[in-house]
């Protein structure tokens, strides 16, 4: 037998072995009540039976009522979501479950776990019926209390494919653990009324080695929020928009006794369609720690209010700026913004999250809403090695000059800043 024939034989045997090994996995198909009752007991039974080396399948085109939160530790498991999952369509029922506690509806931990949603646009959805929550929010408030988080992925060596969330009540996906790939996700938090979808963050990441790509996010808060402890994160080839608060690092430094530790964050090849922010950093006044090696590259904007925004005096508008330590800030080092193009929302700036006094205009007395760049460094030493290059942004309508606001990004610590740190007309140097 020739060497090439032997190689082909060995490959065939290996493939056959893999197929056989996969076929030996326990396979749990979740049965549905067809809308008559809570399917959570059947779901929990399937997760218990196939928690190790198993396959858990929600049948194609079938609806499941998940009226009770699901929490499970898994090992080497595929979760195949070919049907649609429905949370309670009742504010009262949800509040009875949360009962003043922080609740996440789906929580998965373990290793080598894979969420495999349907590639069919009709199926694989988690329907949270959030519109009623948006509409019930009282004027001047920032979202109803008691809303659960939707999904916590505390997995090592995991994948999430075709995750779909429609009308979330609030926060969507929290990711912790190590080595996770999220791809082809859809987050749809578009309100069908004038009510704003507060706190509908798409992804919050406080993990290591995470890639989020090829996804579509329409929401009313951060598309990605980088949290403390995040390292080696890639967010690429995604489209975000509606009333999004963009690609955010932070907020960080909220607890002065817990220093920020974040590094190696890359946002690449992103389209931002509308929204409040595109590239954003936010840390609390009086925070501690270091954030380093963060890059936004090849960012296309369509009518965004704040394209590039840095604040080291962040506040939560629901709480107000409480007493904070002075004379310190989360340090920023090695930040790059490159190849930005598109338009600034000059004609109708802002979004529906503004509660008087408007949080996103706070501390910016010279704001014109023609700014391509706003750099608000807390002190002359808190920002180091900032680089701005190929920033080609213009106010929508073409009747105004592009401007900038820059505070404390001193040239001795930022020799390649790319602009003069002053307020006024934007000029690359």
From TrEMBL:
PANTHER family tied to this protein: EXOPOLYGALACTURONASE C-RELATED, PTHR31736
Organism: Microthyrium microscopicum
Span of the signal peptide: 1-21
Statement: the UniProt record of this protein carries the keyword Iron-sulfur: no
Protein name in UniProt: galacturonan 1,4-alpha-galacturonidase
Lineage of origin: Eukaryota, Fungi, Dikarya, Ascomycota, Pezizomycotina
Pfam families per the UniProt record, alphabetical: Glyco_hydro_28
The keyword tRNA processing belongs to this UniProt entry's keyword annotation: no
Highest taxon of source: Eukaryota
InterPro entries in the cross-refs: Glyco_hydro_28, Pectin_lyas_fold, Pectin_lyase_fold/virulence
GO molecular function terms noted in the UniProt entry: galacturan 1,4-alpha-galacturonidase activity; polygalacturonase activity
């Amino acid at each position: 037998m020739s060497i090439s024939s032997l190689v082909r034989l060995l490959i065939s045997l290996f493939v056959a072995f893999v197929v056989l090994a996969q076929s030996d996995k326990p396979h749990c198909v979740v049965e549905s009540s067809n809308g008559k009752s809570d399917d959570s007991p059947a779901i929990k039974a399937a997760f218990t039976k196939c928690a190790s080396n198993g396959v858990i399948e929600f049948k194609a085109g079938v609806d499941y009522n998940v009226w009770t939160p699901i929490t499970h530790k898994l090992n080497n498991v595929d979760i195949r979501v070919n049907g649609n999952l429905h949370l309670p369509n009742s504010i009262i029922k949800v509040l009875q479950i949360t009962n003043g506690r922080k609740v996440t509806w789906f929580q998965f931990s373990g290793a080598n776990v894979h969420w495999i949603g349907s590639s069919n646009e009709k199926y694989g959805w988690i329907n949270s019926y959030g519109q009623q929550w948006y509409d019930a929010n009282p004027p001047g408030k920032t979202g109803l209390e008691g809303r659960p988080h939707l999904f916590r992925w505390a997995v090592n060596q995991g994948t999430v494919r075709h995750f779909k969330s429609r009308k979330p009540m609030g926060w969507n996906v929290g990711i912790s653990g190590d080595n996770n790939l999220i791809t082809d996700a859809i987050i749809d938090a578009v309100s069908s009324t004038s009510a704003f979808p507060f706190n509908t963050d798409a992804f919050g990441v406080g993990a290591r080695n995470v890639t989020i790509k090829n996804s579509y996010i329409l929401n009313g808060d951060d598309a990605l929020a980088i949290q403390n402890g995040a390292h080696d994160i890639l967010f690429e080839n995604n489209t975000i928009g509606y009333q999004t608060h963009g690609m955010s690092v932070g907020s960080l430094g909220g607890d002065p006794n817990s220093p920020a530790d974040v590094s190696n964050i890359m946002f690449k090849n992103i389209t931002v369609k509308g929204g409040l922010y595109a590239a954003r950093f936010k840390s609390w006044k009086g925070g501690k720690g270091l954030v380093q090696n963060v890059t936004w590259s090849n960012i296309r904007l369509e009518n965004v209010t704040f394209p590039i925004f840095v604040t080291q005096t962040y506040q939560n508008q629901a709480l107000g700026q409480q007493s904070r330590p002075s004379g310190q800030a989360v340090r920023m080092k090695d930040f790059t913004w490159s190849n930005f193009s598109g338009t600034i929302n000059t004609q109708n700036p802002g979004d529906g999250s503004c509660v008087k006094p408007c949080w996103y205009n706070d501390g910016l007395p010279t704001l014109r809403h023609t700014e391509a760049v706003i750099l608000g460094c807390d002190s002359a030493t808190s920002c180091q090695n900032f680089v701005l290059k190929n920033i080609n942004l213009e106010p929508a309508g073409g009747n105004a000059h592009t401007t900038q606001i820059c505070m404390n990004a001193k040239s001795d610590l930022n020799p390649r800043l790319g602009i003069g740190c002053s307020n006024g007309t934007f000029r690359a140097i």
